[in-house]
Amino acid sequence: MKPPYELLMEMNGSCPVCNRKLSTIPQSFEVKPIEEKELIT
Length: 41
Fold this sequence. Notes:
By secondary structure, this protein is mostly helical. Helices cover 27% and strands 0% of the residues.
């Protein structure tokens, strides 16, 4: 997983879909594990 500042640099600091400015300070987030069946393609 890339750190947030690297992602911001890659996307020029804005959302590629709506072009809104992105921040490195999260409002809220939740990390969930990926189920094993989702990994199989």
